[in-house]
Amino acid sequence: MKRDLPARTKKFALRVIKLCQTVNETPGVGWTLGDQLIRSGTSVGANVAEGAGAQSEADFLTKYSIALKEAHETLYWLDLIELSELIPSHRLGDLKQECNELVAILTTICKKLKDKRK
């Protein structure tokens, strides 16, 4: 599972980008929420990619911990977009599910690394 994580998070980022193109069609609040979502949603994969070049196990854990925080933030923005009815719920379901799965994967990886360091 860990080996496909960089590709999976990149695919997730691309899905977020496409969603933000739609969200940004609504001026004002839409642009603001889209900006926040694109920053956190693409940061998940960027930090996973940085983890691949980590200089140490501690550096790797730091990058993956940041990716986890960004995934949690992405869920928050997706929820706000859904609750504000900028995008219909049925269009967000798969993306939110993927984000929840990424949270679970990253949580497991970070927990295992933290336990190993004890």
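Above is the first protein from milestone M3; the second protein from the same milestone is given next.
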Amino acid sequence: MSDTDKHSFDEIFSRGVDLFNAKEFFECHDAFEELWQEERSDRRLFLQGLIQAAVGCHHLSNGNTSGAISQYNKSLEKLKQYPDDYMGLEMQTFRKGIERCFDGACLMNAKGASYEVDNSFFPELQRIS
């Protein structure tokens, strides 16, 4: 990867993190997917896990609990393969937050409930300095 490619990757990745934290899940998905399509290293599966987490949050925020459950399941399966400090992100807390979203989606689904989920319920991607 050239310096230009790395700089571009880092910029897009940072934008994806910022979009996730701003609860702009659909746009976050687009940013990470742009990287995922070109990625061929071990990071590819990680990016896919982040994409699926964003899509799960998007679904849950729109009341689609079954879609959220499916995406959270796929996301957690991938993200658990990575260390707690990966690509400058603190992943242990993030995975716990996604598990909480998964549990909430399962509970809503079991009750047949669909209600607006407050943005504060969704986890954030914390950068490690």
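Note on the second protein: Strands lie at 85-86, 89-90, 126-127.
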